[in-house]
Amino acid sequence: MAGKLYKILAHYGLLVIGLFLLAPLSQALEWDVRRFDGRDYVTTRQISEFYNIPAEAPLAKDQSAFVRGQGSLVFRRDSREAVIHGLKYWLAFPVIERDGAFWVSRMDLAKTIEPAMRPGLVRNLNKPMTVVLDAGHGGQDKGAVSSYQYEKNFALDVARRVRDELKAAGVNVYMTRNSDTFIELPERAALANKQENAIFVSIHFNSAANRAAQGFEIFCITPRGAPSTEYENLLVRDMVQEHGNEAEVQSFVLATAIYHAMHGRSQMMDRGVKRSRFAVLRLTKIPSVLVEGGFLSNPVDARRIASPEWRTRYAKSIAEGILAYIRLANERKAPPFAADYRLPGSQNLRLSTPAATPQPSSPSVSLRGLPEEEPDPPSVPTP
User: Fold this and answer.
1) Is 101 helix (H, G, I), strand (E, B) or coil?
2) pLDDT for the residue numbered 58
3) What pLDDT score was predicted for residue 345?
4) How many Å apart are CA 43 and CA 92, to the nearest integer?
5) Alpha-carbon distance 129 to 133, whole Å?
């Protein structure tokens, strides 16, 4: 039995998550795993029971919502968007409705819901010795443009402010660029990979042809066998194991910690924690995220970004999220939620010690009805 369990867990590299096999505390939970269209699914009801979040009255006929205090899970039928603890996350596959229930893919439960709900149980969170800050663009690469300034300049300004906050907290910081210079994307990743026990945060600002588009979003590497957020269907490249997948779950946890701090400190539209195979996420072998701090093409966002006071608050929020991740790695202290950052008197929250995530002493495990290992993702035609 132990050998079978290890094989299942190792298949996704989540030794503690166990593809949702661990029951909460000492209560065993036998999962009803169904296979639809070549993919494994579990119901949203099972997920809520697993995390001990009771059902709430449905928000709409096409939604499934569960809430307990600050803990929340909201799913929408035929959608890849989910709300976890008040923030938006993009799933790999849409939620489906079958036999009168909503179903979530097994991959999304293991790769998104579990590490978002219980980051303190994620293994291999190496204690970061260095934070690599990557100011996007530079030199002849101006990035996005607003009526105020180029993206490359805003990105460098924010990166420097984040650096100052982290150094004041005693954190070692490495900048991929500290002047208006151009650095190729593979070189940025190579510089990050040279740092021992490091994490990588690339800072950018967005732009879109639709001037109404606005808000924050943050990216981490796409899991193998899943489409990136910007695509609906699987592509051939989605089957490739990238260097970035070596720290895939850790990158997701880093993104979550930073994103909660960003939204807790700097109010802006929530566009979600997303997945992509950007070069700096594919090529880095350490926990890595790419932050998009609003749209320079949007008049409201652009005006905020042009304000030095706003950029100071924004940089502090990124630093707080990084520090929350470092506390998690060093002390297994659960990162705060966005709501925690908004509480009165929370201005020094980044220096506080939040409650540790409960750790089950000897969780019960049930393998009934579960295949020994997740089959390979379905094949896709060559585009």
Assistant:
1) strand
2) 59
3) 66
4) 16
5) 13
Which residues of the chain carry a pLDDT beneath 70? 1-29, 56-59, 345-383
Cα distance between residue 176 and residue 76, in whole Å:
40
Rounded Cα distance between 81 and 90, Å, is 5
| Sign of torsion over alpha carbons 41, 225, 275, 164 | positive
Pseudo-torsion of CA 128, 130, 135, 136, nearest 10°? -50
| Rounded Cα–Cα distance for residues 337 and 190 (Å) | 32
Given a contact cutoff of 8 angstroms between Cβ atoms, the answer to whether 278 and 219 are in contact is yes
Q: What is the DSSP letter of 21?
A: T
Q: Is 135 exposed, middle or buried (0-12, 13-18, 19+ CB in 10 A)?
A: buried
For strands 81-84 and 87-90, give the pairing: antiparallel
- Beta pairing partners, 22: 365
Q: Measured between alpha carbons, how far is 130 from 95 in angstroms, rounded to an integer?
A: 38
Extract the runs of DSSP E, i.e. beta strands, from 181-287.
198-206, 216-221, 270-276
Beta-strand pair 39-43/34-36: antiparallel
C-alpha distance from residue 275 to each of 6, 25, 315 (Å): 27, 31, 22
CA gap 284, 181 in Å, rounded: 21
Model pLDDT, residue 57: 54
Which strands, in side-by-side order, build the sheet including 87-90?
63-68, 71-76, 81-84, 87-90, 270-276, 216-221, 288-295, 198-206, 130-135, 172-175
Q: How far apart are CA 32 and CA 177, in angstroms?
A: 50
Distance CA(137)–CA(264), nearest Å, equals 27
337 closest CA partner among 316, 358, 355, 359: 355
**Res 20: pLDDT:** 36
Burial class (CB in 10 A: 0-12, 13-18, 19+), 322: buried
| Each residue's pLDDT tens digit, 31-76 | 999 999 999 999 999 999 999 988 765 567 888 888 877 788 999 9
- Helix, strand, coil share of the chain (percent; to 5): 35, 25, 45
pLDDT, residue 162, reads: 98
Q: Who contacts 67 (Cβ-Cβ below 8 Å, separation ≥6)?
A: 53, 54, 56, 73
* Position 210, amino acid: N
Length, in residues, of the chain:
383
CA–centroid distance for 18 within its chain: 19
Cβ(9)–Cβ(121) below 8 Å: no
pLDDT given for residue 350 in this prediction: 47
Contact 36, 98 (CB under 8 A): yes
